[in-house]
Amino acid sequence: MGKYIAQRIGYMLITLFLIATISFFLMHFLPGTPITNENKLSPEQREIILETYGLNDPLPVQYVKYMGGLVTGDLGVSFQYDNRGVTQILMDRIGPSMQLGAQALLIGTILGVLLGLVAAIYHNGFMDYTSTIVAVLGTSIPSFVFAALLQYVLAVQLGWFPVATWEGFSYTILPTIALAIFPMATCARFVRTEMIEVLGEEYITTARAKGLKGSAIIFKHGIRNALIPLITVLGPLAVGLLTGTLVIEKVFAVPGIGQQFVSSVTTNDFPIIMGTTLLFAVFFIVMLLIIDILYGLIDPRIRLAGGK
Amino acid sequence: MRKTNWLLLALVLVLSSFLAACSGGSSSSGGSGGDSGSGDSASGSANGDQIFNMPITDEIPSMDPSKVEDALGIQWVSEVMEGLYRLDENGKPVPGMADGEPEISEDGLTYTFKIKDNAEWSNGEPVTAQDFVYAWQRAVDPATASEYGPYMMGGVVKNATQISSGEMDLEELGVQAEDDKTLVVELEKEVPYFQSMTTFATFFPLNQKFVEEQGDQFGLEPENILSNGPFEMTEWNHSQSMKFVKNETYWDAETVQLEELNLTVVKDTSTGVNLYETGELDRAGLSADFVDQYINDANFITEPEPTVFYLKMNQKRGGEDDTPFANENVRKAVAQAINKEDYVNVILNNGSTVIDGLMPADFVSGPDNKDFRETNGSLLPYDLEAAQAAWEKAKEELGTDEITIEMLGDDGDTAAQTSAYFKDQLEKNLPGLTVENKQVPFKQRLELDNAQDYDLQVAGWGPDYVDANTFMNLWVTDGANNGMSYSSEEYDALIESANGEHAGDPEARWNDFLEAEKLLMEDAAIAPLYQRSRSALQSPKVQNVFKNASGPDYEYKWAYADNAAAEQ
């Protein structure tokens, strides 16, 4: 196990290196410069400013400099917010995004699994149809419509929750709900399908024949087997949620990383673009590793790296 | 039973007299603000909590006055700091740090300013002439890499251009401290609007010791900022919220009535409107799609801005090869073929108005006190007949029936509709013309503009200081902003004379500018489109916030909250 993880971390570093390299060169294909008032500057002034940003060096030189900094953990300073450290900016922004993402993931998964289970157990019954409708709506309504609706009805009309901004736990409720809908619907659909399939397996019939109680069958034999495929879906879903979403952050005025990423792209703030891309990449890769480890824990049939 | 009732009544009476005394106190202390304001300020007075809760569209990138380069930074640096002058409610510069009017030498090149004795930094140190010398040198220092420093000071303050390109030492800049309170400024040429320029952030003073202590963190957090203006920044939750409070050490603190200004970062229009509706914000900006819904609201306002939009018609692709716009009749045809009225009313729908010249309305007026736009009138209006006549002539001159041009535009929401509308108008009204739309991100548009890699472009300009020159010098031959190879000797001569020979003669100078605009429009150098307005919902409690023509968008120094008005 330890050897396997060490090996995986080695691969992760190589992947990260490739991602950093590719993003670095792709980013420099972005049109324009980080200069805000380009059309007010003479060519010499432009050169002087680009020089201070280090953008006058040949691209390979800039690349080597950047990677050198990266190895020592230095992500550089922002162009857009002059001299503010990229690491600090990312740390500040990732907090709210992760909190929302974690809350939404937790609520979405729990509700989704429950909904899926109920639907599977009462297959083709009223509960099944209700849960299916919820799941279909949840996956098909775009999150910005849902977010705007929640905000208007629950905050503006009923006044139950704050409208927007980020000042305490009560401010996180609406964005969390808006974010949780999609994972909930996805989980519900998945669990329902899997559960129906598992309940049709022969070992369930055997269990029934042995005279086990219905609840014992479902909890001991059913759920565990139905959850394995869910983990595959949850990984990327978690990354998506934890790394922030532009739309929900914008609607609820959350100072998150999703918005930061977009604004750094539009202002050509290269160090922040790189920093955010790498952060997302690290998240994704680590999540994949966790999923693989979880597989082994949940399903003993899956052996990591063919080990003993 | 009865006894307690009487007691209660007595208590209420005592309390209410206390309250009355309090509110009376605050309105009388607000009297000084009412004096300096006029007209509309007479209707209300400051009462209740002097707090505004305002939206801000994004994070403030920097509070370093030498480096601010965007509207938000300029806005809020200007509230915590002050230059020699500050713009008042009429957009006229009034002395700020300067003690009265400067002494100006006969040739108009040397200004001697006295600094107010009671001008102080928020750490208690006096604002001195050296603070200006240091700040101005810092703004043009190539090491600072300021965008506005060289742009604002170049060609104005003596030697600024040479210093900013590294050819001269900082000490050679035309600004000297004769003593602690006397500042001598030498100009490159006579600049009649110099006082107005000193209201701009780049010209603010800086306390050298403080700035150097903060190093590269200067202006990045509230504790890295030193105030000499009406407000102080006390909280800065990046990308989230900011708080400004009245600066008690400000020389004119008794005029400032507003105690607190809270800003919340809200990027989404509908979120802003919802926060306004629930009373959490005192203002909400409206985009075109919200205007119809709120146009009859009692608190709906539109604010005209001195920002104009026009079509740039590039005469030489890449600065070398002639485009169809090298032909004057093609330019005239395109400039008159678009129905601008329909455009502002239907597509923009935000109170923007049609403009038929370059200079915006209500921006500058001449020695006769008449508005520039009013004097020059409508020069290049929508005129289908004239457009088509010019078009036929153009086709003859060019010897072709089919002309294809590329139109460059931004990729925002209304930008897409704008491009589609212009394409439709031009192709419908000018038979044989094909317009190919090219929509690119803002940054790329600037890059293509710099390279002159386009035929037709939707572009705009807002003023940097309050003077006709900020618009009129845009199209001089090889000017940094020309970017379309327009070149007219006559026009160049008029602009040169306005800034040289006629610089000291307001009347002749004014006429130069009027003539220059007429010439531009006769040549159809650009096709004027519209003057922009903003639409917003604003609580009636917000009083005396002045809309500036240049520099910071709004001035809060004289503002106050009339909470009674909001409750009515």
TrEMBL record, chain A:
<feature type="transmembrane region" description="Helical">
    <location>
        <begin position="168"/>
        <end position="191"/>
    </location>
</feature>
<feature type="transmembrane region" description="Helical">
    <location>
        <begin position="9"/>
        <end position="30"/>
    </location>
</feature>
<keyword id="KW-0472">Membrane</keyword>
<keyword id="KW-1133">Transmembrane helix</keyword>
<feature type="transmembrane region" description="Helical">
    <location>
        <begin position="272"/>
        <end position="298"/>
    </location>
</feature>
<keyword id="KW-0812">Transmembrane</keyword>
<feature type="transmembrane region" description="Helical">
    <location>
        <begin position="100"/>
        <end position="122"/>
    </location>
</feature>
<dbReference type="Pfam" id="PF00528">
    <property type="entry name" value="BPD_transp_1"/>
</dbReference>
<dbReference type="Pfam" id="PF19300">
    <property type="entry name" value="BPD_transp_1_N"/>
</dbReference>
<feature type="transmembrane region" description="Helical">
    <location>
        <begin position="227"/>
        <end position="252"/>
    </location>
</feature>
<feature type="transmembrane region" description="Helical">
    <location>
        <begin position="134"/>
        <end position="156"/>
    </location>
</feature>
<feature type="domain" description="ABC transmembrane type-1">
    <location>
        <begin position="94"/>
        <end position="295"/>
    </location>
</feature>
<dbReference type="InterPro" id="IPR045621">
    <property type="entry name" value="BPD_transp_1_N"/>
</dbReference>
<protein>
    <submittedName>
        <fullName>Peptide ABC transporter permease</fullName>
    </submittedName>
</protein>
<keyword id="KW-1003">Cell membrane</keyword>
<dbReference type="InterPro" id="IPR000515">
    <property type="entry name" value="MetI-like"/>
</dbReference>
<comment type="similarity">
    <text>Belongs to the binding-protein-dependent transport system permease family.</text>
</comment>
<keyword id="KW-0813">Transport</keyword>
<dbReference type="InterPro" id="IPR035906">
    <property type="entry name" value="MetI-like_sf"/>
</dbReference>
TrEMBL record, chain B:
<protein>
    <submittedName>
        <fullName>Peptide ABC transporter substrate-binding protein</fullName>
    </submittedName>
</protein>
<dbReference type="Pfam" id="PF00496">
    <property type="entry name" value="SBP_bac_5"/>
</dbReference>
<comment type="similarity">
    <text>Belongs to the bacterial solute-binding protein 5 family.</text>
</comment>
<dbReference type="InterPro" id="IPR000914">
    <property type="entry name" value="SBP_5_dom"/>
</dbReference>
<feature type="compositionally biased region" description="Gly residues">
    <location>
        <begin position="27"/>
        <end position="37"/>
    </location>
</feature>
<feature type="domain" description="Solute-binding protein family 5">
    <location>
        <begin position="92"/>
        <end position="482"/>
    </location>
</feature>
<keyword id="KW-0813">Transport</keyword>
<dbReference type="InterPro" id="IPR030678">
    <property type="entry name" value="Peptide/Ni-bd"/>
</dbReference>
<dbReference type="InterPro" id="IPR039424">
    <property type="entry name" value="SBP_5"/>
</dbReference>
<feature type="region of interest" description="Disordered">
    <location>
        <begin position="26"/>
        <end position="53"/>
    </location>
</feature>
<feature type="signal peptide">
    <location>
        <begin position="1"/>
        <end position="21"/>
    </location>
</feature>
<keyword id="KW-0732">Signal</keyword>
